[in-house]
């Protein structure tokens, strides 16, 4: 790839705007962001993890975020509607801040957008049409697009960055193969008032009879989402609103916590989870954020990966050397792989099994010995730190696998793993 001086970024979401800001601050690139103002009424990804905070602090937006967000001190996981396990982030005892925020995405996205504007980034409120050139996988902006922006780049940009999110503009154009996860769930969610209050303002994650759900406390409402196999939804109505409303009233846990609530937004549906492009860069293009890969709303990793990916890509671009984009792709793939492993432990029931056995055995000798250690490393899953701590990952793998098996043999674990699967 030739030396990069001009960069077209497709997409004005957090990933694209964060990248544009970081590159603009280097004061040696000519950058333009293509975006459209159309957006859903609400957007998934409202609960941040502590791992994102150092990046937001480097961007300089935490103080503004405080004015419209809810302080998030931890996470609560419910095995059923009566059994809750709460982990304040401070129990992780790691290097990350012991807090994060629950954010209205409309406000958060606007904050990152406005930051890029303030830094002097050029925005074009229009679609960027991308075409193949016939020269390998090299791409270009269409002649119409070049004309519409007044030949801003004095020809074609040196690099096209796809930050288009789930639209996956370049991946679709080039038909890039993907790696998909085991799950084919859909997520339905809305904002509600009148639900059972949540305090402190942790995110609450519930294992349901079918699927799982989140409750995220926002300043004047609660985000209530359901992630479920679409086959389960057919009996609850024809539209997403009917299915969402009817399921809440028929599912015991949801009825308890949200059954008296009132929707103050429409119902938004997402149905393309766990999809990763097998190639993230080419001759003059690169993918970032959800355009490169996205996983699952559990553990709230999506927005964190989008912002961190922007920092990683800015460094790769700035290195301006052979192998920089290959290294960027390797690191992105590795990170997505590790998060996927944690996601799989949620759906397999391993995490719930550990929480249940831990609760039952807390007063035993083994519980008193291992309990604090287990809670520390479990907390690091929800803070995001477990992904970056080799010991945390290996320890959790042991206690969710080998140790629970040994306890089963020793009749200290009376449960079957399938009893805790997310169906």
From TrEMBL:
It is an enzyme of class 1 (oxidoreductase). One of its GO terms (molecular function) is oxidoreductase activity. The keyword Oxidoreductase applies. Its EC number is 1.-.-.-. Pfam families: Trp_halogenase. Keywords: Oxidoreductase. PANTHER family: FAD-BINDING PROTEIN, SLR1998 PROTEIN. This is NAD(P)/FAD-dependent oxidoreductase. It comes from Terrimonas rubra.
């Amino acid at each position: 790839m030739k030396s990069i001086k001009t960069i077209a970024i497709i997409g004005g979401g957090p990933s694209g705007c964060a990248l544009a800001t970081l590159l603009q601050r280097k004061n040696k690139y000519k950058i333009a962001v293509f975006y459209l103002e159309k957006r859903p009424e609400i957007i998934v990804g409202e609960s941040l993890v502590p791992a994102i905070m150092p990046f937001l602090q480097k961007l300089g937006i935490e103080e503004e975020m405080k004015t419209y967000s809810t302080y998030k001190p931890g996470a609560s996981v419910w095995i059923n509607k009566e059994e809750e396990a709460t982990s304040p982030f401070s129990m992780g005892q790691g290097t990350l801040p012991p807090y994060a925020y629950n954010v209205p995405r409309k406000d958060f996205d606007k904050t990152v957008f406005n930051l890029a504007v303030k830094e002097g980034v050029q925005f074009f409120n229009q679609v960027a049409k991308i075409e193949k050139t016939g020269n390998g996988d090299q791409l270009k902006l269409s002649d119409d697009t070049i004309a519409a922006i007044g030949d801003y780049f004095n020809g074609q940009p040196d690099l096209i960055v796809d930050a288009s999110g789930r639209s996956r503009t370049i991946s679709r154009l080039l038909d890039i193969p993907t790696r998909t996860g085991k799950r084919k769930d859909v997520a339905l969610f809305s904002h509600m008032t009148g639900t059972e209050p949540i305090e402190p303002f942790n995110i609450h994650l519930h294992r349901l009879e079918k699927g799982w759900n989140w409750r995220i406390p926002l300043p004047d409402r609660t985000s209530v989402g359901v992630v479920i196999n679409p086959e389960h939804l057919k009996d609850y109505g024809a539209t997403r609103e009917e299915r969402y409303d009817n399921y809440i009233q028929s599912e015991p846990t949801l009825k308890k916590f949200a059954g008296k609530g009132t929707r103050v937004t429409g119902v938004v549906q997402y149905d393309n989870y766990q999809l990763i492009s097998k190639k993230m860069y080419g001759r003059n293009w690169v993918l970032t954020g959800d355009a490169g890969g996205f996983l699952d709303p559990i553990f709230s990793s999506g927005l964190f990966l989008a912002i961190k990916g922007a920092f990683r890509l800015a460094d790769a671009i700035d290195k301006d050397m052979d192998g920089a984009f290959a290294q960027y792709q390797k690191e992105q793939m590795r990170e997505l792989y590790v998060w996927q492993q944690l996601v799989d432990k949620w759906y397999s029931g391993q995490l719930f099994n550990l929480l249940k056995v831990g609760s039952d055995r807390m007063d035993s000798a083994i519980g008193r010995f291992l309990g604090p250690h287990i809670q520390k490393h479990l907390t690091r899953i929800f803070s995001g730190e477990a992904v970056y701590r080799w010991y945390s990952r290996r320890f959790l793998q042991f206690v969710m696998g080998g140790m629970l098996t040994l306890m089963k043999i020793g009749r200290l674990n009376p449960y079957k793993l399938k009893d805790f699967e997310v169906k």
